[in-house]
Amino acid sequence: MKKMKKLLCLVLVVCFALSMVMVSNAAVPTTDHSKAYALKMYMIGGTDPNDAGLIQDAANKYLKDKINATLKFTVFNYGDYGQKMTLKEASNEKFDIMFTANWENSYADCATKGYLVDLTDLLDRYAPKTKALLGPKIIKGCSIGGRLYAIPANKEMAHDWQLLYRKDIAKELNLDMSKIKTLADAEPIFTSVHKAKPAMYTYETVAGESAYRVLDFEKMNGDNYPGAIYSPVYNKKGAAATKVVNDFATPEAIGLYKLMHKWYGLGFIRKDSDTVTDFQGDLKAGKVFSVVQSGKPGKDAEMSAATGQDFGSVEITTPVATSRDSGTGSMNGISKTSADPIRSLEFLELVNTDTYLSNLLVYGIEGKHYEFADKAKGIVKILPAGSSNYNRAGNGWSTGNQFINYLTTLDDPNKWTNYKKFNEAATLSPLPLFTYNPKAVKTQLAALTAAKQQYMPLLETGKGDPNKYLPMFTAKLKASGLEKVLADMQKQVNAVLK
After folding, report:
1. CB neighbours (10 Å) of residue 349?
2. Domain C-terminal end among 427, 454, 473
3. Chain CA centroid to CA 131, Å
4. Which helix (H) or strand (E) holds 382?
5. How far apart are CA 138 and CA 435, in angstroms?
6. How far apart are CA 19 and CA 15, in angstroms?
7. Using an 8 Å Cβ cutoff, are 96 and 151 in contact?
8. Quick one: pLDDT at residue 16?
9. I need a labelling partner for 298 at 20 to 30 A (CA). Which of 89, 98, 314, 423 fits?
10. Does 7 fall in a domain?
11. Range in 380-389, 407-416, 441-450 with the lowest mean pLDDT
């Protein structure tokens, strides 16, 4: 009898184990590679280049043998991307891959609203090289509730803010750009440029891509609503360093609005700045003298390669490493509407680990869009844009693993080594790797976003007088649930600090 009981127990244990294996296997979906699949991808930065079709044809030939897939991508400019993706997500459009970040097409919002596929249990089988490349620290920092919903780009993990300027014009006008230590220091130089080149945009600042970012607040979840701590550059100590504030109404923000309003009146800023969202076309057309951009080593060379113009740069904030930099600043996620999330993840694995495919998406086709200056060292020369036009050199950070991208002839040969040094030297945020979960206040965040879209373009570009519009903006934020959102953010910050 005892033997029968033992045997019965053993059979039950084996059956349970087998059932768990079956459940485990069933929990991880698969794909049928015998059937071709058409991937649909949305990218950020500029607009669809003339030769997008040629790039897609080349990618399709390559992907057929790799994962039996084809690729169709669409590029939206920075100012339009978030709005366009919000409509696509809300309408349940069927597509596969999209750019998401903490500052645009909010990663946390997309994850908590169910727009993104949970990749946590899929990485080991379908993207093991990418998982190893990123490492557990980055993956953990980009996870929400312990789950990862998008693949972070492997790039610089720190930032400064730089004023990029036309080096050729500065030389022509004999301007000493080294005198600029803060943005306000640029005013005398802007006065000279505006007088000599009145047809140019002396300082390009547009809605959503403005000087506001030089304040360098550490935003809790994107730029669409208030909520941030002061970044390390402000030298806040103790609780003040991690107190969540309405950054849109801080003394620093008010000072910036006033400076922009003054510059708008002086003619440095274009008159339609509050309605314009795409500045890339202006840069390529040579209409812009200067613009503020998130910086890193070689940013000026990157901008020069991307626009065909001669850019230099001056650093106007010191390098810092915030939770925003550590992965969620640039990600690619898989839409919940994808008919084949596994093929989509296999594609992202290739983008992050396959040198040919990665550089095809960034630089285009060898001999048509670039040529090798030194193939052994992976240095390329961008060919002049004519009837053939494809160049995302300035947007490689949004595609995937930058450390397998070619360098251009304008880049420092030690660019990738400099990235690593830049990361190591940056001042660290008082927050550890942290991704805010907005689930509890989604209704309030929608109302705050609407308020921001109504008033912030006027303030950040200088078109609106802050004495008039800031009180109206603040009142609307408070009526939209500002205090509840700030309290929820503070609660999560306090929890992660413990």
Report:
1. 22
2. 427
3. 19
4. strand 379-382
5. 11
6. 6
7. no
8. 42
9. 98
10. no
11. 380-389
